[in-house]
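Supplementary Data S3. Sequence and structure tokens for construct A.
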Amino acid sequence: MHEVNASCAACHTMMDPIGFGFEGFDGIGRARTMDGGKAIDTSGMLTGTDVDGAFSGVAQLGTKLATSATVESCVGKQWFRYAMGRAEGVADTCSISAMSKTFQDAGGDLRTLPLALVQTPAFLYRRPLAQGSTR
């Protein structure tokens, strides 16, 4: 149904071919090669990206994504959001740019992001909480 209904298909035609790469794992993350007595097919497809093409399994998907300039530029922002526990604002643009540059200069080494984050103005000079906020 999610491929037939237009309101669902708009996203599912992009997501499902990526998700097929994860079929080698069951609902709790155990590796599997069979489902319902049939062999698992972990082949998938990336479309609408800078690294479009076929892949088989999560290892190949990870390898493809690791070469993506789009993913590289997104990692700093996502790390910022996770570590700061909030979405970025206009005032965070320089901090995120600095983190992204550090990540890029390090060849995509994720270990550089925690140090890069704690050296940003957004981390060093936290904004005061809004009145009535419990965070």
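Construct B, processed identically:
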Amino acid sequence: MTLTRRRFAVCLVLLFALLSSLSAETRYLAYVGTYTVRGSQGIYVYRYDPATGGLEPLGLAAESDNPSFIAIAPNHHFLYAVNEGKFQGKSDTGGVSAFSIDPQTGRLTFLNDVASRGADPCHLSLDRDGKFVLVANYTGGSVATFRVGADGKLGEASTFIQHKGSGPNHQRQEAPHAHWIDFSPDGRFVLNADLGLDQILVYRYDPAKGTLTPNDPPFAKLAPGAGPRHVAPSRDGRFVYVISELNGTVTTFSYDAKRGALQELQVVPTLPKDFHGENTTAEMVAHPNGKFLYGSNRGHDSIVVYAIDPKKGTLTLVEHVSSKGKAPRNFEIDPAGKFLLVANQESDNIVVFAIDQSTGKLTPTGAEIKVAAPVCIRFLAME
């Protein structure tokens, strides 16, 4: 090896060491949205240790009424939350709140709020540019989009779509119930899981206006009474996974990026064969490495783990693991893919699990924090 090549090799080694050091030193905040019951006052913030998965409480980030689901803007300057319950005394609509983020302390400063245009908003997301917020109204059975100003404040709705119809479960599907809304893997379409209609609705998205128009085909149908709740696209964008609340299944769809169309490939159960109690599912998240998929069972109180076939996109059961609490609602995988944090809504705790990178299996780390009625966890890299 010549002297020049040796120097080049040494420089590469030093560069990789520097990049690894910077990655290891990245600090994170973890925000938790809650229901404001049993003493909870709103959104809480924690300092997250990516080396151990530990959470250090930093206190109440902002008071807010039932901020169950939260989303952080792509520029990391703003946080948005749905507010389930009455908005300004009106029972037919909830609210959406905007906050600015102090990257040093994690504290949130209230900016403004707007009516969500439907009762009980339960999920929200932002487009890639952070210019529009998308909201799903559960009891209202509708979806809406809201423009975001340069100052992070929310404007009036640029789109409002009222769903119509019902499903065979007369108690839970008496009307449409929009439960999840976010973008397709390529960002060209918006997907919406409607529990009441047994459909994944697909909308074309105009990034300039923030408007939604029904796609052709306008939806993908699930089994009658399934009750689709949340959706998780595969990391390579070729597949979409849907966890259904009422019949306890996960449905695998192939995704046609040109047409925005979904084609059913497989349906698997979320529960062990020997479980016969009452259960509803909640969250579904794909691992950053694209190899594993996780879902939560409320009743069985477990996290179900699947391995993903890299070519077919189909799922194979790996294990069921106790959530170490009651009613695991949302859970989140940390940015490095090392730990999975579960928000147990009814037992008021968040439990940390280590993820085996080769098998996807979960092991409790022993790290656990108490917080009243936790629903949603979101990470933010600190500046």
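Confidence is low (pLDDT under 50) at residues 8-24. DSSP finds one helix and 28 strands in the chain.
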